Amino acid sequence: MEVARLHDRLKAEGKLSLPVRIVPRSPKTEWAGFLESGDWKIRVAAPPERGKANEELIRFLAAEFGVPREAIEIVAGATSHNKLIRIQPRR
Fold it and tell me: Bridge partners of 42?
């Protein structure tokens, strides 16, 4: 699945649930592929301490989808590498 399809789904449905696997302490924050499990792999240029990796993930996704940071929510996995993200710009 391409990232462009995620943008299309968000536009069509007005919300998006996104399972992700993050890799903290990476050289830069970027999409890193799609895993067989159905999760998106995202490299995050922040350490997994005191919420820094989560904040960087939210910042990255908000910029990628052109939505405010408040539209991004970590629904599950806040302290895990595996997370479920909800993007819902229209509330």
Answer: 22, 31
